[in-house]
Design a protein that fits this description.
By secondary structure, the chain is of the alpha/beta class. The protein is built from 19 helices and ten strands. Strand 7, helix 10 and strand 8 form a beta-alpha-beta unit. Belongs to the PEPCase type 2 family. One of its GO terms (biological process) is oxaloacetate metabolic process.
């Protein structure tokens, strides 16, 4: 493919910590998964599920900067055979200081922890393979936001070792030892329209003055779906993936896209029983995220088989799309979706307060999908939003689709290959009697799909939730939301 491609070990599955599961992991002591249990979860993802990479979330919660020490000390036998940084990978997701001002200095603490983890791993393994050498920057909007992370690490985390103490000859490195690794890789995570459409320019500017073997780029799937609808999110992903392929060809630097997906069709529809179909949609994506519903809401043998298929597949080439036609379709679909959302926002927010939490998290701020304001609407985070929609019998995948003309639909199915399959999967959980369901969108879906199977049991549960809302019996909502989620095999 590109120079150095065969010699670079870039993971193909990334276990994440997003709380989109219904059933809690067997090792959880209660309904909220905390920091210590997430260390065990990382070990479980590596050792039992055979994920090659774990994303360690340092934003939006109390960060644990000692994860490497805990993994190596608690699971010494396993990690003696599997070296972190060589056989397995741990990648830090940082807070973005430009957006999350209250969390800004956590960024500095997290970067400072990388050389300390290096020292621990050096003692454990007896070599100088860095256990952590990549970080993810969420909500990337500019070249400078990515480069600032890279430069701060090089200049201040590593660079300070050359400083002298009290004017004497002794340097900081003489005093407490060298600081390594000398450099880190920064992975931009693009989550909104402008970021995705400008991703080629942003990444191109970032890589042009660095001697890189490769570059990884992370594309969101969940937050764009909330912002612009299911169809809009797919279109943005397809344009960004094409841009990354073109940049890789032009620069000669291998670029390995990561796609952040969940198990709900609205958030990507990646399930362990749906891997082959899903991969055909995104052949040029190198790494896929494996979130909690994938890991914990299916039998473990099916989960392991799904992960094995993802790990063993060959990365292909992202499809070529007509950006101009795609953006015209994007504007049409996202506008119709937003119109529907304006009507549904009050009931979604009402139900969202009763969607159970699964992990200890602080509230994110900044982007629409992180409980925020977008074009006058305030909505919850992606998982909670999706769960609330399904709980009232309204799969969010259908919102606004009746705006598609016959010509639009024909072109959409050329770009979004699994559109009909994803829509069919979503409509399993529709409630045709829901007072919140846009009739035009359901009628359009029926014209596309013809007959489809709806889960009668799920329909009955959502009818109960709708009745509780009508009668203001809010104490019944959480149990109903959970029972419906168990039928779907995902919370949101």
């Amino acid at each position: 493919m590109m120079k150095g491609h065969c010699n670079i070990r870039v993971p193909k599955t990334m276990s994440t910590q997003h709380p989109d599961n219904v059933n809690m992991p067997f090792f959880s002591r209660n309904s909220l998964l905390g920091g210590e249990e997430e260390v065990l979860e990382a070990y479980y993802a590596y050792s039992h599920l055979k994920c090659s990479e774990q994303m360690w979330d340092c934003e939006g919660k109390e960060v644990d900067n000692f994860v490497i020490k805990k993994l190596l000390s608690r699971y010494k036998s396993y990690f003696s055979e599997k070296q972190i940084g060589k056989d397995l990978f741990l990648t830090l997701r940082l807070p973005n200081p430009e957006v999350e001002r209250a969390e800004a200095k956590i960024l500095l603490e997290t970067l400072e922890s990388i050389p300390r983890s290096f020292d621990l791993a050096k003692l454990f393994y007896g070599n100088e393979t860095a256990p952590i050498f990549e970080v993810i920057l969420p909500m990337t909007t500019s070249y400078a936001s990515v480069d600032n992370i890279y430069q701060y690490y090089c200049d201040y985390v590593i660079g300070k070792q050359h400083g002298r103490l009290g004017g004497r000859d002794i340097t900081i490195s003489d005093w407490i030892g060298e600081f390594k690794p000398e450099k880190i890789n920064v992975i931009p995570l693009f989550e909104d329209r402008d970021g995705m459409l400008n991703s080629g320019d942003i990444v191109g500017r970032y890589i042009e003055d660095k001697n890189l073997d490769y570059q990884r780029v992370f594309l969101a799937r969940s937050d764009p779906a909330i912002n612009y609808g299911n169809v809009g999110a797919v279109i943005l992903n397809k344009i960004a993936l094409m841009n990354m392929r073109e940049l890789s060809d032009k620069s000669g630097i291998p670029i390995y896209p990561i796609l952040g997906v969940g198990s709900a069709p609205f958030r990507g529809n990646l399930r362990p029983d749906n891997v082959e179909s899903f991969v055909r949609e995104y052949p040029g994506v190198h790494t896929f995220t494996i979130q909690s519903a994938f890991k914990y809401d299916f039998p473990v043998d099916i989960v392991c088989d799904g992960i094995k298929k993802l790990e063993e597949r060959d990365t292909g080439v992202s499809q070529t799309v007509d950006s101009e036609k795609c953006l015209e379709l994007f504007e049409k679909c996202s506008s119709a979706y937003h119109s529907r959302l304006t009507e549904l926002a009050p009931v979604i927010n009402r139900v969202a307060g009763y969607v159970p939490k699964r992990r200890l998290r602080k509230l994110h701020i900044g982007l629409f999908g992180y409980s925020r304001n977008h074009e006058g609407l305030n909505l919850p985070r992606a998982i909670t939003f999706t769960a609330a929609c399904y709980s009232i019998g309204v799969p969010p995948e259908i919102l606004g689709i009746s705006a598609l003309s016959e010509k639009d639909f024909e072109y959409l199915t050329e770009v979004y290959l699994n559109f009909e399959n994803d829509l069919r999967d979503a409509l399993m959980f529709v409630n045709p009697k829901s007072p919140y369901l846009p009739e035009e969108d359901l009628h359009f879906a029926k014209e596309i799909l013809g007959d489809f199977d709806a889960d009668e049991s799920h329909m009955g549960i959502t009818s109960g939730i709708i009745g509780s809302l009508a009668e203001n019996r809010m104490e019944d909502l959480e149990s109903g939301i959970l029972r419906a989620a168990e039928k779907r095999k995902f919370l949101g």
